[in-house]
C-alpha cells in the first residue's frame, strides 16, 4: 500500500507542476528540461561510446539542487582523478541546480533526473547502467534505488545527515526506512546520524565520514579569485561582509551600520539580485554606498563605506576581504552557507530562527565561532566587543580555522571506499 501511495504522490507532483507551470518559471523549466530527455541522453551516450576506446563506464552523481552540487563537487572531481577513463553523468532534480551548472566541465553528461516513476527509473538505469551511483545528502528515490539494487549496481549516499524528527524514525515510517535499506552504503556527517540509523537497525552499511562541503570550501579558499574592486574598497579597513542578505537580515544590520562610530566597510551580497531592492536599501543607509557594477564602470570608490554586490558568482571569494561575516537566511527560509566564511576564519553572525538543522552552524556556535543574533541591540553589543578587541578576534578566528581543518578529508574517505568496492566488484 505504501508503495502505491508513493507512486501516486510522484504522479500527483508531476500533475501539480504542470498545473502551476503557466504561472511559475521554475515549474516551466522543470518540465521543459525533461522534454525528450531520454532521446537526448541516448544520443549523448551513443556519441560517448563511439569516442571511447573501451567499454563505457559511467559514474552517476545525483544532486537535488545547487547546494547539494557544491557538496558533491569534491567527490565528483576526486572520482574523475581516480578513474580518469570513467564518464561522469550528473543529474539534478531542481532547475536552480541544473540551470546554473549545466555547463560544468567536470561532468561528461548533465541532465535533469526523470521523475521517480517505475517506468522512468527502469528505463533510465537500463540506459546508463552505471558502475556506481551516488546520491548527495537527502536524495532517496525508491524506484531508482530498487532498479539499481536489482541490477547489482552499488548505490552510495554521502554527506547525509539525519534528525530524530524525520519520518524514518517515526512509527509510521517503515516504507521510508525500507528506502534507506536499499542503499549499498551511507556516509553520514556525524555520530548522531549514525546512532539514529542504528536505532532502526541500519548500521552495518553506515560510516561516519563528515561533510564533503569542508573539502569544497578548502578548494575554494585555495583557488580564490582576486577581486581588485573589493581590495580597493577595503583599503586596510575592518570589513563586515553580509552574505546572502534577505530583507530581515538588512533590517537588523542597517541600524548598526548607520550608528557605528568607528571606521568600518561593509560588503552586502543580496540573496537574489533585484536592482530596485538594492536602491531601497541604499536609501535607508545614512552612509555613502556604491554598487559593484558602478565601480566596475569607473565610479569613484574612495568615499563609499558600503559596497553592494549586484552580480552572482563571487561571494565565496569575497570573504577573503572581510574580518567578520553575517550569513543571511536564518530569519526566514534557512541559513545560507556558513562554511565559505568559516574557511577564512571569520567570526560569524546569523539570525535566530532557522539554523539548528545545520550541523556546522551548531558546531560553530559551540566553539564560539558563531553568534546567534536576536535583534540590532544584541548584534551591536557583540560586534562592537569583537571590533575593539583584536586578541579576542584572533582567538575566535583560530578556533574556526582549527575546526574547519579538522573536518577536511571526507572526500578521500568516500573515494577509498569506492575504489575498494569497484576493485572487489571487478574481480
UniProtKB/TrEMBL annotation:
Q: In which pathway does it act?
A: Bacterial outer membrane biogenesis; LPS core biosynthesis
Where is this protein localized, as stated in its record? Cell membrane
Q: Which Pfam families match?
A: Glycos_transf_N
Q: What is its EC number?
A: 2.4.99.12
Q: Does the keyword Membrane apply?
A: yes
Coiled coil (residue ranges) = none
User: Which reaction(s) does its UniProt entry say it catalyses?
Assistant: lipid IVA (E. coli) + CMP-3-deoxy-beta-D-manno-octulosonate = alpha-Kdo-(2->6)-lipid IVA (E. coli) + CMP + H(+)
Q: Locate the 3-deoxy-D-manno-octulosonic-acid transferase N-terminal domain: which residues?
A: 49-215
Tell me which UniProt keywords the record has, alphabetically. Answer: Cell membrane, Lipopolysaccharide biosynthesis, Membrane, Transferase
Entry similarity comment: Belongs to the glycosyltransferase group 1 family.
- Function summary: Involved in lipopolysaccharide (LPS) biosynthesis. Catalyzes the transfer of 3-deoxy-D-manno-octulosonate (Kdo) residue(s) from CMP-Kdo to lipid IV(A), the tetraacyldisaccharide-1,4'-bisphosphate precursor of lipid A.
Query: PANTHER family of this UniProt entry?
Result: 3-DEOXY-D-MANNO-OCTULOSONIC ACID TRANSFERASE, MITOCHONDRIAL-RELATED (PTHR42755:SF1), 3-DEOXY-MANNO-OCTULOSONATE CYTIDYLYLTRANSFERASE (PTHR42755)
Name of the protein in its database record: 3-deoxy-D-manno-octulosonic acid transferase
Its source organism is Flectobacillus longus
Amino acid at each position: 500500500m505504501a508503495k502505491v501511495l508513493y507512486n501516486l504522490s510522484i504522479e500527483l507532483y508531476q500533475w501539480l507542476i504542470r498545473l502551476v507551470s503557466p504561472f511559475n518559471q521554475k515549474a516551466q523549466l522543470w518540465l521543459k528540461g525533461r522534454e525528450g530527455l531520454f532521446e537526448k541522453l541516448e544520443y549523448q551516450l551513443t556519441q560517448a561510446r563511439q569516442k571511447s576506446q573501451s567499454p563505457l563506464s559511467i559514474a552517476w552523481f545525483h544532486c537535488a539542487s545547487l547546494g547539494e552540487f557544491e557538496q558533491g563537487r569534491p567527490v565528483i572531481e576526486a572520482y574523475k582523478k581516480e578513474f580518469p577513463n570513467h564518464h561522469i553523468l550528473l543529474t539534478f532534480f531542481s532547475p536552480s541546480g541544473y540551470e546554473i551548472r549545466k555547463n560544468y566541465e567536470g561532468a561528461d553528461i548533465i541532465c535533469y533526473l526523470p521523475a521517480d516513476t517505475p517506468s522512468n527509473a527502469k528505463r533510465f538505469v537500463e540506459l546508463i547502467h552505471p558502475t556506481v551511483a551516488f546520491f548527495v545528502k537527502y536524495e532517496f528515490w525508491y524506484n531508482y534505488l530498487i532498479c539499481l539494487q536489482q541490477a547489482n549496481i552499488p548505490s552510495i549516499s554521502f554527506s547525509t545527515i539525519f534528525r530524530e524528527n524525520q519520518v524514518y524514525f517515526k512509527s509510521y515510517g517503515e516504507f521510508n526506512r525500507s528506502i534507506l535499506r536499499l542503499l549499498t552504503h551511507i556516509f553520514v556527517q556525524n555520530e548522531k546520524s549514525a546512532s539514529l540509523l542504528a536505532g532502526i537497525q541500519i548500521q552495518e552499511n553506515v560510516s561516519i565520514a563528515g561533510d564533503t562541503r569542508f573539502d569544497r570550501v578548502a578548494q575554494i579558499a585555495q583557488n580564490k579569485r582576486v577581486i581588485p574592486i573589493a581590495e580597493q574598497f577595503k583599503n586596510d579597513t575592518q570589513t563586515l561582509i553580509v552574505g546572502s542578505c534577505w530583507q530581515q537580515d538588512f533590517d537588523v544590520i542597517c541600524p548598526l551600520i548607520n550608528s557605528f562610530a568607528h571606521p568600518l566597510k561593509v560588503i552586502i551580497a543580496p540573496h537574489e539580485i533585484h536592482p530596485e531592492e538594492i536602491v531601497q536599501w541604499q536609501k535607508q543607509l545614512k552612509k555613502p554606498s556604491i554598487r559593484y557594477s558602478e565601480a566596475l564602470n569607473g565610479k569613484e570608490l574612495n568615499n563609499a563605506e558600503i559596497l553592494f554586490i549586484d552580480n552572482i558568482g563571487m561571494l565565496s571569494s569575497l570573504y577573503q576581504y572581510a574580518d567578520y561575516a553575517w550569513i543571511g537566511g536564518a530569519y526566514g527560509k534557512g541559513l545560507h552557507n556558513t562554511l565559505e566564511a568559516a574557511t577564512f576564519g571569520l567570526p560569524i553572525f546569523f539570525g535566530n530562527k532557522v539554523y539548528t538543522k545545520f550541523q556546522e552552524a551548531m558546531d560553530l556556535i559551540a566553539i564560539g565561532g558563531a553568534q546567534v543574533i536576536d535583534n540590532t541591540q544584541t548584534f551591536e553589543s557583540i560586534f562592537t566587543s569583537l571590533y575593539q578587541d583584536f586578541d579576542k578576534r584572533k582567538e575566535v578566528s583560530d578556533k574556526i580555522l582549527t575546526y574547519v581543518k579538522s573536518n577536511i578529508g571526507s572526500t578521500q574517505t568516500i573515494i577509498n571506499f569506492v575504489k575498494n568496492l569497484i576493485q572487489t566488484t571487478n574481480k
